[in-house]
């Protein structure tokens, strides 16, 4: 019973993080898994060193409130990821499913190709995207995670987190990702100027109360009626000290203290807009 309740909690946390994960590059299909129960149509991303040479499947798991990609196979009893200079096994995870359009592109030094498959995100002020990569190490090929700031592909191996400078990035061919005007990425948001502009906006409206604390900015998908779609202009929830806020400029903290909150939109022209009570305000910054 306790294990079942724990699984449910992990599952709902995983779904919450995935729903609010920025969707900028190629998307892929993932299936929930646990322990050694790997789906038959899981995508093979690498292999152990000979003579065993067991297939390694690409997985991702919630860990320390982020979503991290790694490797799974029978015997791991979970998804093995690299995090904090160590290798960790997470028993409840998701597995990437096979897609004929997947291919690998050789890269090095943190470079990322167009159409890279998005696998997860960091838990950090900027919620950096993590993409699927793999690297040769100790005669095997090991799936892992990458973002530009890493300077390489991070894999878990032998109880440690290893950084490999030369690697391959998983790409989906013939993606419909925008080539000329990609949606703004969370990393592009200037948190300092954004917070100042929001303060100035509420000062002008006579609604500002207290100091604004910029927390995480999470991209969301716009909902219209019962239809959920990706908007060309990225819409962001802004968290108050890592506490998710509602879609309006008023609310309370977890201690019941009144506060001013908001939802902001990052437009493709680089500007930002305040969304208040579902209306698009004219504030630009």
UniProtKB/TrEMBL annotation:
It comes from the Bacteria. InterPro entries: DM9_repeat (IPR006616). It holds the Pfam family DM9. This is Uncharacterized protein. It comes from Beggiatoa alba B18LD. The lineage of its organism: Bacteria, Pseudomonadati, Pseudomonadota, Gammaproteobacteria, Thiotrichales.
């Amino acid at each position: 019973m306790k294990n079942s309740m724990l699984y449910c909690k992990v599952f709902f946390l995983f779904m919450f993080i995935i729903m609010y994960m920025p969707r900028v590059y190629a998307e892929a299909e993932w299936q929930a898994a646990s322990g050694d129960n790997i789906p038959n149509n899981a995508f093979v991303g690498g292999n152990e060193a000979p003579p065993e040479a067991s297939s390694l499947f690409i997985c991702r798991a919630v860990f320390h409130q982020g979503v991290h990609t790694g490797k799974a196979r029978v015997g791991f009893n979970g998804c093995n990821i690299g995090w904090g200079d160590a290798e960790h096994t997470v028993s409840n995870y998701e597995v990437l499913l096979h897609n004929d359009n997947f291919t690998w592109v050789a890269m090095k030094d943190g470079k990322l190709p167009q159409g890279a498959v998005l696998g997860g995100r960091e838990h950090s002020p900027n919620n950096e995207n993590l993409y699927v990569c793999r690297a040769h190490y100790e005669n095997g090929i090991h799936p892992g995670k990458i973002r530009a700031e890493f300077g390489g592909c991070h894999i878990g191996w032998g109880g440690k987190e290893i950084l490999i400078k030369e690697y391959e990035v998983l790409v989906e061919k013939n993606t419909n990702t925008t080539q000329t005007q990609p949606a703004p990425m969370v990393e592009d948001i200037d948190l300092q100027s954004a917070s100042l502009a929001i303060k100035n906006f509420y000062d002008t409206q006579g609604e500002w109360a207290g100091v604004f604390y910029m927390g995480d900015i999470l991209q969301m998908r716009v909902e219209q009626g019962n239809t959920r779609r990706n908007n060309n202009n990225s819409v962001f929830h802004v968290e108050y000290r890592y506490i998710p806020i509602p879609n309006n400029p008023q609310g309370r903290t977890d201690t019941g203290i009144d506060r001013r909150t908001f939802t902001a939109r990052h437009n493709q022209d680089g500007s930002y807009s305040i969304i208040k009570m579902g209306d698009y305000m004219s504030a630009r910054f």
